[in-house]
Write a structure and sequence with these properties.
46% of the residues lie in helices and 15% in strands. With 315 residues, the protein is α/β, with parallel strands linked by helices. It folds into two domains: 211 residues, Rossmann fold, CATH 3.40.50; 92 residues, Rossmann fold (3-Layer(aba) Sandwich). β7, α8 and β8 form a beta-alpha-beta unit.
């Protein structure tokens, strides 16, 4: 069980290594939606994404408990950077299995943090097989991208800060996060349940990787009917662990098309003057698509990351 105390301990553990990221608002976007939006800017986080939180919380504990002499994981990019960054903080080698199709900007960052990259085909089976091979060769400890309580507790600290900074005097009506493997969404829904129980948590998911909405409805881990989305960070299936937490604490999952994701991403670039990646734009795209659901509300949105390949912008 991930208790409130667990999340607070995670926050204390990682605090020396992370930024307490700003929360921004924008009148133009508020007017367009008809709601008051508060953007938690994890695109300004270390490694450029919220993933630094969970990666650090897990790796720092692996080092503290002397669980192994190296770290491994599989990731399309942001978790890879987080684990590589965290491993460097504790002086441990990191072996990162990445799909060959992962954005080059994310591969470059992983190498810059000193980790070794093992490329694989862009399937979950290939990623998991690559990690098994690394563990067999090196004895590395796996820090899973989302199916790990320590990672989930770390990810929860983003919404914890959002609620502490802007949701205590007047509660949020809704907090939104994107969903891929469900680590961030699980952590966000848990800490919201503990600190702001009247606040709904809703997820945004790409239509081109829509496994979570099927799993949410059926109660078992489902695969997406097809995988084809610009949101490269959200292509992973839920796990039994994350599905259980999401079904318990999340109110709904809303899907959006790539066109809607790109429009939301462009809106943030143009109006807020900040860089976000496609996966990051999914919750805002859901709000723009379903304005009636959020009209008149105070809405928190986790902006998850800003690691964009500037040579391949979709607009």
């Amino acid at each position: 069980m991930i208790s409130l105390a667990t999340i607070r301990e995670a926050h204390d553990r990682i605090r020396p290594y992370i930024h307490r990221t700003p929360v921004l608002t924008n009148h133009t976007i508020n007017d367009r939606v008809g709601a008051e939006l508060f953007f938690k800017c994890e695109n300004f986080q270390k490694v450029g994404a919220f993933k630094a939180r969970g990666g650090l919380n897990a790796v720092l504990q692996v080092a503290e408990h002397q669980e192994g002499k190296a770290i491994t994981t599989h990731s399309s990019g942001n978790h890879a950077q987080a684990v590589a960054f965290a491993a460097r903080q504790v002086g441990m080698p990191a072996y990162i299995v990445m799909p060959r199709t992962a954005p080059q900007v994310k591969k470059n960052a992983v190498r810059n943090y000193g980790a070794d990259i093992i490329e694989c085909e862009p399937t979950l089976d290939a990623r998991e097989a690559g990690v098994r091979d690394v563990i067999e060769r090196t004895g590395a400890v796996l820090v899973h991208p989302f199916d790990d309580d320590r990672v989930i507790a770390g990810q929860a600290t983003a919404a914890k800060e959002l609620i502490e900074d802007f949701g205590t005097e007047k509660s949020f009506d809704t907090i939104l996060a994107p969903v891929g493997g469900g680590g961030l969404l699980s952590g966000t829904s848990l800490i919201t349940h503990y600190l702001s129980p009247t606040t709904r948590v809703i997820a945004g998911e790409p239509e081109g990787a829509a496994d979570a909405i099927l799993s949410f409805r059926s109660g078992r881990v489902e695969k997406a009917p097809y995988i084809n989305t610009i949101a490269d960070g959200l292509m992973t299936n839920l796990s039994e662990r994350t599905l259980r937490l999401i079904r318990e604490h999340v109110a709904d999952i809303l899907t959006v098309s790539d066109e809607e994701i790109i429009a939301a991403m462009r809106l943030v670039w143009e109006r807020m003057k900040i860089i976000i990646e496609p996966s990051c734009a999914v919750p805002l795209a859901a709000v723009l698509k379903h304005k009636d659901q959020f009209a008149g509300q105070r809405v928190g949105i986790i902006l998850t990351g800003g690691n964009v390949d500037l040579g391949k912008l979709p607009f």
